[in-house]
Task: structure prediction
Amino acid sequence: MILFRPLIRYADFRGRASRAEYWLFAIFQAVWYGFLVALAALAAGQGDTAGVAPGVLVALALIGVSVVALIVPNYSVLVRRLHDTGRGAVWLVLLAPGVASAFLTCVTLGTAAGSVGLGAGREVFVGTILAGLGTAGVLGLVGMLGQMVMGVLMLLPGTRGENRFGPDPRDPAARYSSDGGGGTVYDDARLEALFAEAKRANAAGEDPGRPVFDFGPGPAPIAPSGWHAPAPGTAPAPTFGRRGT
Result:
């Protein structure tokens, strides 16, 4: 369960996360992306050389969807891991140069392609590429240093006991309680106990559809005033039509 806890707490930036929660999720993503890359390589080797194999397109599409879908849980578990070490989300500034480098690279390539489409000369194209990619490269180097520092922070043990971001996620006494920020510290043992209790109730023959709140039997139906059931064997009087016919 701890492996998928970042997905359960998809956009929860409050509380704390242990080292196991962060690194198991990182390993899970590495295995997943490695599987998709291997699938794309296998499909490319078996496809027709005249075109792109459908398996390659499927693998690339899955990679793109996975990257977009996992952006939020990656940053949320990163913030909670920082909280576990007693640091705030302001430390995410270490990743800013790397993000700026990637953004500047995309802008530079788009601008260079646009200049070619508008009929600009070779000098303009080369100058745009050199200026943009050169700046992006410098930012990338700074971003690599920031990522190394962030990696070291992710390896540090969390603070013992409760800190200003919530209780210790490794403390059994603080599990399944408020995290100090309005969220909940998910506890595998607590969830397993709930599942076991539900299984025991099901095995004991209790009604699985029994409502949580049982208010007893409902009120008896009330017949309309002035109405009496006809005697057996008599036809009811006609309601519409002319009298005496």
